[in-house]
């Protein structure tokens, strides 16, 4: 199989998994937002943020280092497996001890919330330990571009956790409906991945290899810590000064507006970093692979962002039962933030594949400093909307810096970016604006649960049709993926030959 087709199929399988899981996740969020109180949703968001802060150090940057590594992979995998598990057990002990202090800092304004948040933090932190047992096999599947093997365990685990969360919410279990659903998802994922990965650990440890993995991985951790601070300092400030209920609304807006960054960008990033690593010594090929990956991230990110922005007031009212009208302006501004992050995320993989992971640290540092200095004034200016506006502006500046640095590696012509992004932005905006009047007309006759996704799908379909007709590379890659899938189906369903 050609390299380009292999990457295309990898993108397809990861996209299938992401779309299915995100669809289920959105249904879960809508159900839980209707059944849970805003304070309860905000407490879970706070706990998620705190546990995620600890998880930044869980895999020590070894996953990226293992993908980047070209030799002695088996020894590196064994070393990483042992150290990641031990590290996660130590981190869980730390999380258990500091949980009451974290809970008091964020939930002191709400009666009884400190004790509840402490228990939630301690249970939710278990997901980190569970995930550590599956980290290396998942990384090895990614390194080999074996994304088809990741789809089934991800979907089974995600669907099972979602089903449990909705069932417990129906039984009025409050915050625990979300917590136990996530615990089940992590547990199943760590178990099921071993049925799809042929590698088995030998429980050996090489100090030299550990040092090599750390020398690369520490830059990844540094950038992850800074990016986490950037993407969560707003959540922390909202939780601390505006309370859990405000955070609940902001959390929903953030998740929805960041679909391009958290799902589309992550999908492509998972495939493209190992792909970049394979061509890191060939400048022309690296440039071609990056421009193609950025184009296809933007191809999906632009319509998702514009549809979200145009339909934001209607969606927040219909999907979440009218509980969060104060979050609508924040949602619209955050769509700009999510779009910029989605496309800029493809550039981070170029930094890593080009041996410049420290650039991620430099970019993240200025963003964190900027957010830390301006976030409180922005909050005092316009509450949640001020926070969202600041996030959008910082993300756009970050995009410009990342693109400039990326070009220092791949040396592309600037007109290439204009030709790629401008047509998508124009077509996506026009189709989204045209679809909204159709929705307002149709909703008078049909329930909004039907008309809203139908209108969004219509806008997306028209947009993709126009881009398919306009861009020959879109047609070419689409044809390659279809042909590759057809070949896969023929191989799996071809009748076996029986010897007479």
What is the structural class? mainly alpha
As a whole number of angstroms, the C-alpha radius of gyration is 23 Å
Strand content: under 5%
Summarize model confidence as the mean pLDDT. Answer: 81
| Total helical elements | 18
Overall shape: globular
* Strand elements, count: 0
CA distance, first residue to last residue = 32 Å
Helix content percent band? over 70%
The ordered string of helix (H) and strand (E) elements is: HHHHHHHHHHHHHHHHHH
Please specify the SSE layout and strand pairing:
Layout: H1 3-35, H2 38-55, H3 62-68, H4 73-107, H5 113-124, H6 126-132, H7 135-143, H8 148-170, H9 175-192, H10 207-241, H11 244-257, H12 259-278, H13 283-319, H14 328-353, H15 358-410, H16 414-442, H17 448-470, H18 472-493
Helix pairs in contact: 1-8, 1-12, 1-18, 2-4, 2-5, 2-10, 2-11, 3-7, 3-10, 4-5, 4-6, 4-10, 6-9, 8-9, 10-11, 10-15, 11-14, 12-13, 12-14, 13-14, 13-16, 13-17, 14-15, 16-17
Provide a short characterization of the protein structure.
It contains 18 helices and no strands. By secondary structure, the protein is an all-alpha fold.
Structure overview:
- This protein is mainly alpha-helical and 500 residues long.
- The chain has 18 helices and no strands.
- Helix 10 (207-241) crosses helix 11.
- It is globular.
- The two termini are 32 Å apart.
- Residues 495-500 have low confidence and may be disordered.
């Amino acid at each position: 199989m050609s390299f380009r087709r292999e990457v295309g199929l990898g993108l397809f399988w990861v996209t299938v998994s992401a779309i299915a899981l995100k669809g289920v996740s959105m249904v879960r969020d809508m159900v839980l937002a209707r059944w849970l109180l805003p304070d309860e949703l905000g407490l879970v968001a706070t706990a998620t943020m705190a546990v995620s802060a600890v998880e930044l150090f869980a895999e020590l940057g070894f996953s990226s280092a293992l993908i980047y590594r070209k030799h002695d992979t088996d020894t590196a995998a064994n070393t990483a497996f042992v150290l990641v598990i031990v590290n996660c057990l130590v981190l869980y002990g730390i999380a258990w001890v500091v949980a009451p202090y974290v809970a008091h800092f964020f939930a002191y304004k709400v009666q009884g919330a400190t004790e509840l948040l402490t228990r939630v933090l301690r249970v939710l932190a278990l997901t980190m330990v569970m995930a550590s047992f599956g980290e290396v096999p998942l990384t090895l599947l990614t390194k080999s571009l074996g994304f088809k093997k990741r789809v089934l365990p991800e979907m089974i685990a995600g669907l099972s956790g979602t089903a449990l969360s909705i069932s417990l919410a129906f039984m009025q279990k409050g915050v625990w409906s979300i917590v136990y659903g996530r615990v089940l998802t992590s547990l199943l994922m760590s178990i099921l991945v071993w049925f799809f990965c042929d590698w088995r650990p030998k429980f050996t440890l090489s100090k030299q290899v550990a040092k090599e993995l750390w020398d690369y991985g520490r830059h990844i951790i540094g950038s992850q810590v800074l990016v986490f601070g950037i993407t969560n300092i707003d959540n922390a400030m909202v939780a601390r000064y505006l309370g859990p209920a405000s955070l609940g609304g902001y959390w929903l807006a953030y998740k929805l507006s960041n679909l391009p960054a958290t799902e589309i960008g992550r999908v492509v990033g998972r495939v493209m970093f190992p792909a970049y690593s394979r061509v890191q010594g060939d400048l022309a090929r690296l440039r071609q692979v990056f421009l193609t990956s950025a184009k296809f991230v933007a191809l999906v990110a632009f319509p998702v962002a514009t549809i979200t922005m145009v339909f934001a007031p209607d969606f927040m009212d219909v999907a979440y039962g009218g509980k969060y009208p104060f979050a609508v302006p924040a949602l619209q501004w955050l769509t700009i933030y999510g779009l910029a992050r989605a496309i800029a995320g493809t550039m981070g993989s170029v930094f890593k594949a080009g041996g410049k992971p420290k650039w991620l640290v430099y970019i993240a540092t200025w963003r964190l400093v900027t957010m830390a200095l301006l976030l409180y004034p922005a909050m005092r200016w316009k509450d949640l909307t001020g926070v969202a506006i600041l996030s959008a502006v910082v993300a756009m500046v970050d995009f410009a810096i990342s693109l400039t640095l990326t070009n220092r590696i791949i040396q592309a012509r600037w007109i290439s970016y204009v030709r790629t992004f401008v047509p998508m932005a124009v077509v996506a905006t026009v189709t989204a604006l045209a679809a909204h009047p159709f929705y307002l007309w149709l909703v008078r006759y049909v329930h909004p649960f039907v008309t809203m996704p139908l209108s969004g799908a219509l806008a997306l379909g028209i947009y993709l049709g126009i881009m398919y007709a306009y861009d020959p590379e879109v047609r070419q890659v689409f044809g390659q993926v279809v042909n590759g899938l057809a070949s896969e189906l023929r191989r799996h369903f071809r009748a076996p030959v029986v010897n007479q």
